[in-house]
Specification:
heterodimer, A: alpha+beta, Aldehyde Oxidoreductase, domain 4, Aldehyde Oxidoreductase, domain 3, 3 domains, seven-stranded mixed beta sheet, 25% helix, B: 164 residues, alpha+beta, Ubiquitin-like (UB roll), DNA polymerase, domain 1, 2 domains, globular, binds FE2/S2 (inorganic) cluster
Chain lengths: 734, 164
């Protein structure tokens, strides 16, 4: 029987997607549906004294206007319920009358047409009292700063500490010390499909929301909480999802859609409600990648061994917590990289401000931490005159290493292998000089590497459910897989089907998938943390094993249901940071070649090599697609994407001013090299891939720019203005 | 009082009459009035290409045109490419080369690719990248899209030769 894994298989949803038949949330229509629009705060910090909906309600076509007092339990959040569903007076949640960022939601208008809803929305009168706006996280950390939440005595959400060894005592043994302050920018997910959804009461009387998300059961739970219902009264279904990248990990339109349907239902109106956000509403209304300020001081001995790392970093969490505390954990881990450093001190803070909330985005704190750590290593190597790959050889972790968390890295550490492979294939160190270039063009080469966890970290409960039905007589003819995992475009459903076919020993065509519907599945966790293939594979294998046993005992259909629970991780100790942070990791190394035009400041990325150990590539063409896609997103992050926010107002809420890469703005060549060193805990040895290739890109590119120009950029995006400023400073001084 | 107008045109080879308000975009007419939801809205201001359609064989962003502007014209959307039995070679190529992930941008890319290959049967990589620069994709990084276009060109050329 030929293998179903390790082979390129066309994605199972490809046919629907190339013909236009695939239905995304905005494509769901029903002849009697109503349309909803949201009134957003449009102010970064202000209290609502009162809302007058009188005029709006009398607009033609208006069916309902809902405000804070209509929300049964007016709070939500993935980790901490600190955000009101609707901001305004009259709800049962203290502090819910205050908008803390421009995208807070104030009122819902349900009407016969979208135009009528817009017109009525614009007729709602809100009496505002503006409050002091605080957008600088350092200001927000001060004890006398205005508090975003009256109930709190600090705007600091979380402070992580690592204390390992004796950093102060180590400096005197260092031959070189590098101290830098890094700043990383916001990043907008810019998935092509803006938030949208439709809600209705299904035939079993459940409030049903069809929406693009990343985790049906979490969305179901949050809706139930805010509506004061049990989870069984709520159903969430994911139709086709137009990209996510972490941006749909926190809910957007889910709760408000459910609220509208519930309200109409109670009034005896049984018509579906639909909402579609514009691009601008999407950019204003959902979270971003966290900006970080990272102050790093690292020292190394003359032989290149890194002796000490001291890092202080502050993340702008924006107005609500979202996943900030978890992202901070990962940034804390990443801030000293995949290196064995005996003396480490890290202080990491996530802080509330009146900016747009920050949250999950591919890499989850990793790109920020890795930018600082990799840049530090590259700078130390530069100062010591040691080649950057050799510098890494002298410091990288390997199996058995005990890191800054005082726990052994999970078996299967392959960072050395990916670094060597990348160096080897790119003939590192690259010494040849290109004499053919015009005098304004400088060429440079950069290198960086990273690790990224697979699965939830730092004690967050991790589990994944699957159910398999085997149908047939003497032979298995048909297999039904039930799984809740979200297909966001990464190809999850295709690899689910491949892994099921492989485990059952039947052709792929025999597998039928029932997925991403909370009524048909149990909790499989989210499409995030590069976890889904790993967790789903383990759950599918478990379920198939049970089903095959039942098949042997003549059960027809033979059913196997299994919940995979991996090794439990633990949270950081509050004083020392000691913990067992992660289940396992994937490893990556990259080499980037740039040409910098020192007259225009334009950077051309000529060639990228990304070497990723994915453990086992279930579907190699999709794995390559993940690597290429991650590199290009990271390319946008490093060179192009410039979210401008002034005093809490986002000024780049369109694709005309928030630029993401087009086919002309990408690296000229991206070579994805897939390595397959088995992970002992992975199904068929696999790890994960979605995030890893994002992490080393910014530091590798910036090292290449340094190689080309002699200038270290500690801040990006490297838009031409910034590059030119850097060149001017280095020539003419500060 | 309604200002609605009747528009008659050919959409995907079929004679169609529909009602539209004068200010409604072609994209709204296609999606909401005619139920052709293959064309997507990604920005509604001409910056993403997810709404790409052909009008009299010219590639346009449907969000930037009014429904009334297609009076008497011939419109092709992604739904009009495959016939009942087989995919259009451009669609086939995107499937084979994995030129899509989430697929939200895909209808726009497929229509744009058809427009390119109808004009230029053998585009170079630079010509492909230049032509597609009006279509955004956030998932793929474009490499597999460019490969898909190359394969599509080959498949269409092969089919033409097969006919001769
Ligand atoms: S929706 Fe028309 S160009 Fe974006
Ligand atoms: S495949 Fe998702 S935007 Fe192109």
């Amino acid at each position: 029987m030929t293998s179903k894994i390790g082979v390129d298989v066309s994605r199972i949803d490809a046919l629907d997607k190339v013909t236009g038949k695939a239905l995304f949330p905005a494509d769901l229509m029903s002849s009697d549906m109503l349309h909803m629009k949201i009134l957003f705060a449009g102010r970064p910090h202000a209290r609502v004294r009162s809302i007058d909906v009188g005029k709006a309600e009398s607009c033609p076509g208006v069916i309902a206007i809902l405000t804070a007092s209509d929300v049964p339990v007016n709070e939500y959040g993935l980790i901490n319920c600190d955000q009101p569903v609707l901001v305004g007076p009259g709800s049962n949640k203290k502090g819910a009358d205050t908008a803390r960022f421009v995208g807070d939601q104030i009122a819902l208008v349900v009407a016969e047409t979208e135009e009528a809803a817009i017109k009525a929305r614009d007729d709602i009168l809100v009496d505002w009292v503006d409050l002091p706006v605080i957008t600088d996280p350092y200001e927000a950390m001060k004890p006398d700063a205005p508090m975003l939440f009256e109930s709190r005595d600090s705007n600091i959400i979380k402070h992580n500490k690592i204390r390992a060894g004796d950093v102060e005592g180590a400096w005197k043994n260092c031959e070189v010390i590098v101290e830098s302050i890094y700043h990383t920018p916001w990043q907008e997910h810019a998935y092509l499909q803006p938030e949208a959804g439709i809600s209705y009461i299904d035939s079993d009387g459940r409030i049903t929301v069809e929406v693009a998300g990343q985790w049906v059961h979490e969305e179901q739970k949050q809706i139930a909480h805010a509506l004061g219902l049990t989870v069984d009264q709520v159903r969430v279904i994911h139709p086709a999802i137009g990209g996510a990248f972490g941006g749909r990990e926190d809910v957007s339109v889910q709760i408000v859609l459910a609220l509208a349907s519930w309200h109409l239902h109670e009034r005896g109106i049984s018509r579906p409600v639909k909402i579609v956000w514009s691009r601008e509403e999407s950019i204003l209304g959902h979270h971003k990648r966290h900006p970080y300020n990272i102050h790093a001081k690292w020292g190394a001995a003359s032989d290149g061994s890194i002796l000490a790392a001291e890092v202080k970093m502050v993340a702008d969490a924006g107005a609500y917590e979202y996943t900030s505390a978890k992202v901070l954990g990962n940034a804390t881990l990443q801030s000293t990289g995949p290196y064995d450093i005996p003396n480490v001190s890290v202080d990491a803070y996530a802080v509330y401000t009146n900016n747009v909330p920050s949250g999950a985005f591919r890499g989850f704190g990793g790109p920020q931490g890795a930018f600082a750590a990799e840049s530090q290593v590259n700078k130390l190597a530069d100062k010591l005159g040691i080649d950057v790959v050799e510098m890494r050889r002298r410091n990288l972790i390997s199996d058995g290493s005990i890191g800054q968390f005082k726990s052994v890295y999970p078996e299967g550490v392959t960072i050395r292998q990916v670094v060597e492979e990348c160096a080897d294939r790119s003939n590192w160190p690259i010494t040849q000089v290109d004499n053919s270039l015009p005098s304004n063009i400088r060429k440079g080469y950069g290198f960086a590497c990273a690790l990224k966890n697979v699965g939830f970290s730092f004690g967050f409960p991790e589990e994944c459910w699957a159910k398999v039905e085997l149908h047939g007589g003497s032979e298995i003819e048909r297999v039904v897989l039930h799984h809740a995992g979200a297909e966001c475009g990464q190809g999850a459903h295709t690899v689910f089907v491949q892994m099921t076919a492989e485990a059952c020993g039947v052709p792929i065509e025999c597998i039928q998938l029932e997925a991403a519907d909370s009524a048909l599945t149990k909790n499989s966790g989210s499409a995030s943390a590069s976890r889904l293939t790993f967790m789903a594979g383990n759950s599918i294998r478990g379920a198939v094993d049970l089903a095959l046993e039942n098949w042997q005992s003549e059960e027809r259909p033979a059913i196997g249901e299994y919940k995979f629970v991996p090794r439990q991780t633990t949270a950081l100790d509050t004083e020392t940071g000691e913990c067992d942070p992660n289940i396992t990791y994937g490893y990556v190394a990259q080499r980037v070649i740039v040409e910098v035009d020192i007259e225009t400041g334009h950077i051309r990325v000529v060639d990228v090599m990304s070497v990723d150990d994915v453990g086992r590539a279930i579907n190699p063409i999709q794995v390559a697609g993940q690597i290429e896609g991650a590199v290009v997103q990271a390319h946008g992050y490093t060179l192009l994407e410039n979210l401008v926010s002034r005093d809490g107002y986002i000024e780049t809420a369109q694709f005309s001013n928030y630029l993401i890469p087009t086919s002309l703005d990408v690296p000229e060549r991206v070579e994805a090299v897939i390595l397959e060193y088995s992970d002992p805990q992975g199904p068929w040895g696999l790890r994960g891939v979605a995030e890893m290739p994002f992490l080393p890109y910014a530091p590798a590119l910036i090292a290449a720019v340094h190689d080309a120009t002699g200038i270290w950029f500690d801040e990006f995006p490297l838009i031409p203005e910034r590059v030119l400023r850097g060149i001017d400073h280095s020539v003419y001084g500060e | 009082m309604s200002n609605k107008r009747v528009v008659s045109s050919t959409i995907n080879g079929q004679q169609v009459e529909f009602l539209t308000e004068p200010q409604q975009s072609l994209l709204e007419c296609l999606r909401d009035t005619l139920g052709l939801t293959g064309s997507k809205e990604g920005c509604n201001d001409g910056n993403c290409g997810a709404c790409s359609v052909l009008i009299n064989n010219r590639l346009v962003n449907a969000c930037l045109m009014l429904g009334i502007e297609i009076e008497g014209k011939d419109v092709v959307t992604v739904e009009g490419l495959a016939d009942v039995h087989e995919l259009h070679p451009v669609q086939e190529a995107f499937v084979l080369e994995d030129g899509l992930q989430c697929g939200y941008c895909t209808p726009g890319f497929i229509v744009a690719t058809k427009a390119l290959l109808d004009k230029n049967a053998n585009p170079t990589e630079d010509e492909i990248r230049f032509w597609l620069a009006g279509n955004l994709c956030r998932c793929t990084g474009y490499d597999k899209i460019v490969r898909s276009v190359r394969l599509a060109s080959q498949l269409m050329n092969d089919a033409k030769e097969g006919l001769q």
